[in-house]
Design brief:
single chain, alpha/beta, Rossmann fold, Alpha-Beta Plaits, 2 domains, five-stranded parallel beta sheet, 13 strands
Length: 311
């Protein structure tokens, strides 16, 4: 483990350093509470900290209390106490320490506490990984692996907030597969699912790494384009439309020609930023117009009017 020792007594600190190094731990040391707090709250913080109660500038209890506020991913803390100095271990635990050891530190007791701490951290890591996986599963469309509708709208809300804060434009494109019901009725739902997965891959390949992509509905995809003004968003939509139309989808049953229509909405000035529903409604209206009377087109909502790009 990566361990921080915060101990003002030079001799006691060296004894701990020697023991922990011999036990194959990576050790960092300091003698000041404020410095220890800074290390534990910084990037790449140690997994565990051994803190003396009587640290200068900021005692060990205060360090534990500050570190505890970092949440479940915080380092594990062991507080060193001296009962003869009225340092009650129970008070240390109430202050936020995960464990306490009475000084002078017994080597076998320290090893025992470190093994318990390591097991705790491993379980904590497994729980965090399970939570992350559950969060991804809840926000993911199982067929395409993209964001689902709720996650797409949540990401759009975040992009609107970022655009307002940074004063940058934002574009939204709603893409819909043409005649998808006919494809399902003719070739079956398994073929329809395969086409959706292929289109999702092509869309992902047409976007920048930091663009957003989600499955908004049955055969609709929502593209989030940070820093894209109206003309840039239209160009992206047209590139997406052309790339999908250019190559039929190859399946075991043969090749199936696929085209999409797209509706674009974009705002260039932060003062004009709208809520997620307004963005999507504008793109939906443009998409509806793109599908009338023909398909395989891009339409854009511009101040309430529409501009045909692909005709």
């Amino acid at each position: 483990m990566r361990i921080l020792i915060a101990e003002p007594d030079t001799m006691a600190r060296r004894v701990l350093e020697t023991a922990l190094t011999q036990w194959s731990h990576q050790v960092t040391s300091c003698s000041d509470g404020a410095e220890a707090c800074q290390v534990l709250q910084g990037q790449g913080a140690p997994e565990l900290a051994i803190l003396d109660w009587s640290l200068p500038s900021m005692d060990g209890r205060l360090v534990c209390r500050e570190v505890k506020q970092a949440g479940p991913s915080r380092p594990y803390t062991i507080l060193l106490t001296a009962p003869d100095l009225q340092q009650d271990p129970l008070e240390g635990l109430e202050a936020g320490a995960d464990d306490c050891l009475i000084k002078p530190v017994d080597a076998s007791q320290l090893q025992l506490r470190l093994k318990a701490a390591q097991r705790f951290l491993e379980v904590q890591g497994e729980l965090a990984a399970a939570r992350d996986q559950l969060r991804r599963t809840e926000s993911m469309d199982p067929l395409t692996g993209l964001w689902n509708r709720a996650a797409s709208l949540g990401q759009l809300a975040q992009e609107i907030f970022r655009a307002k804060r940074e004063g940058t434009p934002l574009g939204v494109v709603l893409v819909d597969l043409d005649d998808f019901k006919y494809l399902n009725d003719t070739h079956g739902y398994q073929t329809g699912d395969a086409v959706l997965r292929e289109v999702a891959q092509r869309l992902r390949g047409s976007l920048r790494p930091y663009d957003g992509l989600g499955r908004y509905g049955g055969d609709e995809f929502l593209l989030l384009l940070p820093s894209c003004d109206f003309h840039m968003a239209v160009n992206v939509a047209e590139r997406v439309r052309a790339s999908i139309a250019a190559m039929p989808v190859k399946l075991e049953c043969g090749t199936i020609p696929v085209t999409v229509s797209a509706g674009v909405s974009a705002i260039s000035r932060p003062a004009e930023m709208r809520d997620p529903d307004a963005f999507v409604r504008a793109a939906e209206t443009a998409l509806y117009d793109a599908r009338q009377p023909t398909r395989d087109r891009v339409e854009a909502a511009v101040n309430g009017s529409f501009l045909n790009i692909s005709a």
